[in-house]
Every structure is written in C-alpha cells, then in structure tokens.
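User: Hi! Is it possible to get a structure for several chains at once, not just one? Here's what I have:
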Amino acid sequence: DTAVSQTPKYLVTQMGNDKSIKCEQNLGHDTMYWYKQDSKKFLKIMFSYNNKELIINETVPNRFSPKSPDKAHLNLHINSLELGDSAVYFCASSHGLLAYEQYFGPGTRLTVT
Amino acid sequence: RKEVEQDPGPFNVPEGATVAFNCTYSNSASQSFFWYRQDCRKEPKLLMSVYSSGNEDGRFTAQLNRASQYISLLIRDSKLSDSATYLCVVTPNDYKLSFGAGTTVTVRA
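Assistant: Yes, the chains can be modeled jointly so their relative placement is included. Here is the combined structure:
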C-alpha cells in the first residue's frame, strides 16, 4: 500500500533522448509536486499542481513538461535530455494547497550519458 | 544568498551523545518551519514541525529564533538509527517548501 509511487526507479539514457517519469499517490491528496535533487543534495521545487491546475512553475527549461491527468497522478516528461539533467527526481503530494507536510515518493535516479 | 543554509557536517557522535545543529533562512516573511530527515538514497520524510515557542518530540527538540532567523535541532541520547541527513525546511510563501542542503549526522557505536 505504497503512498506515493514513482516509475521507473532508475533511468539511464543518452543525451538527446526523450523520457517520462510517472508518479501516483493513493493518499487522496489534491496537490502534487516534482522536485530535483542534484549531486550537491539541494532539493529544488520544479512544479506543483493542485487539482490538476499548475500552481508552481519554477525556472525550469521548457524541455520539462509536467502533466496531471487527474489529481492522483503527476507525470514528468523531459525532451532532449542533457548531461545536467542527471539527478534524482522526487514526486511528492500534500493535502490541500498549503505545502505544510509533504509525502515523497522513493525517487527516480536519472543518469544521462 | 541561498534561502536556507545549513552546516553540512558531518557530525560524528557516539551513541548516547547529544548533537545539535542550526540552519539559517534569508526570508524574514517565512511562516512555517520544519525538519525533514533523509536516509541515504531514500526520500525525505517529515521529522517535526518547528513552532515559535519551541517543541519536543521524544528525544528531538526544535527551536525557532525569528529575530536571528535561525532554526535549531537537538537530538538527545543519540541512537545508531538517528544517522541520516537532516533537512531544514522553510516556507517562503504558502505554496512551496524551500529545503536546505542538509546536515549529515553519523552516530557510531
């Protein structure tokens, strides 16, 4: 009964490829997030959605496009992958629009070669 | 200047010791504060919220100093299982969390 799940857990791909990461939560939360954690361990917000509506869109290249088909799912599609995209991507969810307690998925370790 | 700054450590302490560390935040309008814990190669998990009056949760004590814009975490009677990276988290607005890079604590037997 995983609360926030992500697939795949590991993703190794070459520069220039397009890839997607999927996230699902079964907590009944209505806000979901994507974070990037780079090699320096900083966890940075990329996007957040509330009831399928985009709330936060930090300074992220256009190559990254989130999609929320329903409030339990938030997917991340990345076009034309670059070496600098290598990182761990975490999905998270929270109850309500205020970001107080967030539940994170296990992360997707993306390596671009 | 980063929104949230932490001493990366590592803090290496023996079992049973007390360890404490701080983080500072730059946005004086920040309203909510938390400590998250992240084990190696795992996802962050909420450890505790930090209230203005300070609060305890078992062996963990969190303090907030708004005037100096810092938050502290103290761990008493350290256990091996306390070994982790502790992330200081601040809400610069209502909609997002800003994370520090973390303070690594290693408890040795």
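The two ends of chain B are 38 Å apart (CA to CA). Chain B touches chain A through 19 residues (CB under 8 Å).

User: Great, thank you!
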